[in-house]
Amino acid sequence: MLPTIAIVGRPNVGKSTLFNVLTKSRDALVAEQAGLTRDRKVGRGKVGGMPYLVIDTGGLTDASDGIATRITQQALQAIQEANKVLFVVDGRDGLTAIDEMIAQRLRSFNIPVHLVINKTEGMQSELVNIDFHRLGFSPVHTISASHQRGIEAMMETVLSDFSVPEESEMDEAEAGIKIAIVGRPNVGKSTLVNRILGYERVIAYDQPGTTRDSIFIPFERDGQKYTLIDTAGVRRRARIADVVEKYSVLKALQAVEAAHVVIMIIDAREGMTDQDASLLGNVLDSGRALIIAVNKWDGLTQTEREQVRYTLTRKLHFIDFAEIHFISALHGTGVGHLYKSVNIAWTAAHKHISTPLLNDVLKDAITRNPPPLSHGRRIKMRYIHQGGQHPPLFVIHGSQVDSVPDAYQRYLIRFFRDTFDLQGTPIRVEFKQGENPYQGRKNVLTPHQMKKRQRLMRFVRRSK
C-alpha cells in the first residue's frame, strides 16, 4: 500500500493549498474563504522517488451544527485511514483555542503527527515555533504552501519511515471505469454515491450546494474496478453569482471530461427542467457515455410516475442511446442495476471495429437506403474506417459527402449502433471529401480539337 498522509487543521490555514502543492495539481478548490473544503479528497504525489497518497479534509471547528458535524466526521475518518497526519496551523495567527482542541483530539489516535506551521513567509522560524511548542508535537515543520517553501524537506522527513512500494501498488489507483455523477443541486448525487459505496463517504445533507468539489473515490465490485466522481450541483451560468460556486461548477464540468461514463441524475418530483437540459447538452458535447437516473422515484404515485415517463419520452427523444433507470438513492431501489448499464456503456465506448467489417456494414446500409441526390449529383461513400474511441468515431471518405443531409447521418448512426450493439454511448460520424485530381488544371486543346471547335462555332452562328 502507498503511504497515506492526512492533512488536518482548523479552517483557512492553507490545507487545500498544501494539498495542491503535494499533488502538483489544482484539484482542490482554494479561496480566501473559511470552510470551503467539506468532503475528504484523495490525491497522489511523489517526492524523491517515493509515491504517496494525501488526503485533504475540511476545517475542524468547535461548532455543533449539521454540516460542521459531518465535516468533522469526514476529517476523523481520514485520520483513521492515514499512516501519518500533517497538523497544519497558521503561523501568522499564532496558537488558537481551536488548534489546542484539535491537538487534543489527535492525541487520542495512535498515529504519528507532524506539526506544520504554514504562512511563515517573511518570518523567522525560531520566533514562529515558540508559540506552538506547548502542543508537544515533534517534529515541527515551518513552511509556506503558497510559496512552496520547505515542502520537499518536510515530505522527505515524513516519508523517511516508508519503503518504496512495488510498481503494481503504484499503478493500482489508476485502474477502473471512471463514473461521474452529475445533476442540479440537491437531486441526490452524494446520497447515490454513499448508497453505491455502502457507507457515508461524502457529506449528504438536505441543503443545495453541500458538495463544492469533485471527489474521486476508487472502489471495486465483482472484480471490476471503478472510480466514482461526486460533483457539485450545476446550475445555469446566469444564476451563479458566488465565486466559489463558479469554481465548483467548473470542477464538475472538468469531472465530466475526465470520466468514462456519466450518470445524469434527474429529480422525479420536478421532472426534466431547463437546467437539466443545459447540463445534458454539456455532457453530450463531451462525447461521454451516458446513463440517466431518475431519482426519488419511491415517493411518487402511479399517476405521477406515468406522467414523468411520458414527459421524459417526449423531451429525451433525441437521446435514444442512453439507458434510463428509475431509482431511489435514499432507499437503494434500482441502484444495483446501474452497474450493468455502466459496464455496457463503457464497453461500447471503447469498442474497436475492424475496417473490412465497417466497409461491409456501410455497403449494406447504402444498399438498403441510398443517400439522396445533392443538386442532381449522386453522393458516393467509398470508404470508412474508425477514427477514434470514447466516443466511437467513424470517418467516411467519398465525393459529395459534404452535402449529406442530417437525416441520413442519423440513419447511419442508428444503423451502426444496431449492427455493432453500441448502446449507452454517442456515435460520431465524420465525412472526408475526396480531392478532385483535375481541380486547378487548365484543359489545353490540341490543334485538331481547335479546328473542330471553330467548325462547331461557325455552324452555330449560321443556324442563328
UniProtKB/TrEMBL annotation:
<comment type="subunit">
    <text>Associates with the 50S ribosomal subunit.</text>
</comment>
<keyword id="KW-0342">GTP-binding</keyword>
<dbReference type="InterPro" id="IPR027417">
    <property type="entry name" value="P-loop_NTPase"/>
</dbReference>
<dbReference type="InterPro" id="IPR031166">
    <property type="entry name" value="G_ENGA"/>
</dbReference>
<keyword id="KW-0547">Nucleotide-binding</keyword>
<dbReference type="Pfam" id="PF14714">
    <property type="entry name" value="KH_dom-like"/>
</dbReference>
<dbReference type="InterPro" id="IPR016484">
    <property type="entry name" value="GTPase_Der"/>
</dbReference>
<feature type="domain" description="EngA-type G">
    <location>
        <begin position="3"/>
        <end position="166"/>
    </location>
</feature>
<feature type="binding site">
    <location>
        <begin position="295"/>
        <end position="298"/>
    </location>
    <ligand>
        <name>GTP 2</name>
    </ligand>
</feature>
<dbReference type="InterPro" id="IPR003593">
    <property type="entry name" value="AAA+_ATPase"/>
</dbReference>
<dbReference type="InterPro" id="IPR006073">
    <property type="entry name" value="GTP-bd"/>
</dbReference>
<feature type="binding site">
    <location>
        <begin position="9"/>
        <end position="16"/>
    </location>
    <ligand>
        <name>GTP 1</name>
    </ligand>
</feature>
<feature type="binding site">
    <location>
        <begin position="230"/>
        <end position="234"/>
    </location>
    <ligand>
        <name>GTP 2</name>
    </ligand>
</feature>
<keyword id="KW-0677">Repeat</keyword>
<comment type="similarity">
    <text>Belongs to the TRAFAC class TrmE-Era-EngA-EngB-Septin-like GTPase superfamily. EngA (Der) GTPase family.</text>
</comment>
<dbReference type="InterPro" id="IPR005225">
    <property type="entry name" value="Small_GTP-bd"/>
</dbReference>
<dbReference type="InterPro" id="IPR032859">
    <property type="entry name" value="KH_dom-like"/>
</dbReference>
<keyword id="KW-0690">Ribosome biogenesis</keyword>
<feature type="binding site">
    <location>
        <begin position="183"/>
        <end position="190"/>
    </location>
    <ligand>
        <name>GTP 2</name>
    </ligand>
</feature>
<feature type="binding site">
    <location>
        <begin position="56"/>
        <end position="60"/>
    </location>
    <ligand>
        <name>GTP 1</name>
    </ligand>
</feature>
<protein>
    <recommendedName>
        <fullName>GTPase Der</fullName>
    </recommendedName>
</protein>
<dbReference type="GO" id="GO:0043022">
    <property type="term" value="F:ribosome binding"/>
</dbReference>
<comment type="function">
    <text>GTPase that plays an essential role in the late steps of ribosome biogenesis.</text>
</comment>
<dbReference type="GO" id="GO:0005525">
    <property type="term" value="F:GTP binding"/>
</dbReference>
<dbReference type="Pfam" id="PF01926">
    <property type="entry name" value="MMR_HSR1"/>
</dbReference>
<feature type="binding site">
    <location>
        <begin position="118"/>
        <end position="121"/>
    </location>
    <ligand>
        <name>GTP 1</name>
    </ligand>
</feature>
<dbReference type="GO" id="GO:0042254">
    <property type="term" value="P:ribosome biogenesis"/>
</dbReference>
<dbReference type="InterPro" id="IPR015946">
    <property type="entry name" value="KH_dom-like_a/b"/>
</dbReference>
<feature type="domain" description="EngA-type G">
    <location>
        <begin position="177"/>
        <end position="350"/>
    </location>
</feature>
